[in-house]
Design brief:
Shape: globular
Strand content: 25-35%
Strand order of the largest sheet: 8-9-10-7-11-12-13-14
Radius of gyration: 20 Å
Structural class: alpha/beta
Distance between the termini: 40 Å
Number of strands: 14
Number of helices: 9
Length: 332
């Protein structure tokens, strides 16, 4: 690897990969050098759009064998993450794998155990976002008082065919794995590991895919949380943290916010005083760039685990999803 530039290969050039590639181009010392797809024309079109001159492969094994690639970004459907991340690791590459890392905690632990001296990181980009990290640090420092309640929701209408990956149990379908992972991770990053989580929800007609989930949680310090996710309804995709001094409103869609606002309440009945907190460092693109930059830093530092998306966090959230799906009656 070059002393400064981290060279990337993208495995499975789909919609999310395009977003990451767009932001990657904004990151100094990061370069997209190869793209792998099962379709040569698709790989070539993606490379032409995002990194003219990058090598296009119609074979994933050839991509991971490319000596010019330092790290492979696995952007395939959930059910293929284990197989394809392992393929890259076995070829000696570092791996950033889209979330969820695998379909359950047990296989994620197996994959992490096989990574050896390579960096393996789940692509939970929100945990690398400057607004999330600033908010978490200030919350832990007590800047906004003592938190007592957190709420977060992420939902959309999955207007797709029944065999689409979102609704197909064989492909890891369901709201919790695809988008419910964000509210769960937000609560974990802000409050710590949950003490107790209880879920109720709606499954599809097969009884195998969770469509709607409402989660009640208790976190360290006697903080409660209400978390919601859905593939059948829209929501503002917001997050709020309530404290004994006011409330924190995360602006925009909470998983990639532009800023947050603390509404301080001096006393009961008094008008809240809003104070806006902009990120202390630039958001690169829409935020995928911060994740790319962090991966590069980890590789240059010789890390095998990200301090912002540690393996323990990945395993904890997947274990929570395993348990919540079981509570709802869905196969784990």
């Amino acid at each position: 690897m070059s002393q400064t530039t981290v060279r990337w290969g993208i495995l499975a050039p789909g919609r999310i990969a395009a977003k990451l590639a767009t932001d990657l181009a904004l990151v100094p010392d990061a370069e997209l050098v190869a793209v792998g797809s099962r379709d040569q024309a698709r790989a070539e079109a993606f490379a032409a759009a995002h990194a003219p001159g990058a090598t296009a492969y119609d074979d994933y094994a050839a991509l991971v064998a490319d000596p010019d690639v330092d790290v492979v970004y696995v952007a395939s459907p959930h059910s293929l993450h284990l197989e394809q991340a392992r393929l890259a690791l076995d070829a000696g590459k570092h791996v950033l794998c889209e979330k969820p890392l695998t379909l359950d905690r047990a296989t994620a632990a197996e994959l992490i155990g096989s990574a050896g001296d390579r960096l393996l990181m789940e692509a939970m980009w929100s945990a690398c976002h400057p607004v999330w990290r600033d908010l978490a640090g200030r919350l832990r420092a007590g800047d906004f008082g003592t938190p007592h309640h957190l709420s977060a929701d992420l939902s959309f209408v999955a207007d797709v065919a029944p065999d689409h990956r979102l609704l197909n149990p064989a492909l890891g379908g369901g709201a919790l794995l695809d988008i419910g992972i964000y509210p769960l991770t937000f609560a974990h990053v802000m409050l710590g590991e949950a003490v107790d989580l209880r879920a109720t929800g709606i499954l599809d007609d097969s009884g195998q895919v969770d469509l709607d989930a409402a989660i009640a949680g208790r976190y360290p310090g006697d903080v409660v949380a209400t978390l919601k996710t859905s593939l059948t309804s829209y929501s503002p995709n917001t997050a709020t943290i309530y404290t004994d001094q006011g409330w924190i409103e995360v602006a925009g869609e909470f998983h990639f916010p532009p800023y947050f606002t603390f509404h301080r309440v001096a006393s009961r009945g008094s008008a809240p005083e809003p104070v806006r907190f902009d990120p202390p460092e630039p958001i690169i693109g829409i935020g995928y760039g911060n994740e790319v930059a962090h991966v590069g830093d980890c590789i240059r530092q010789g890390r095998t685990e990200s301090p912002w998306v540690p393996h323990a966090q990945t395993l904890t959230i997947l274990g929570q999803i395993d348990d919540l799906k079981g509570q709802m009656g869905s196969p784990r």
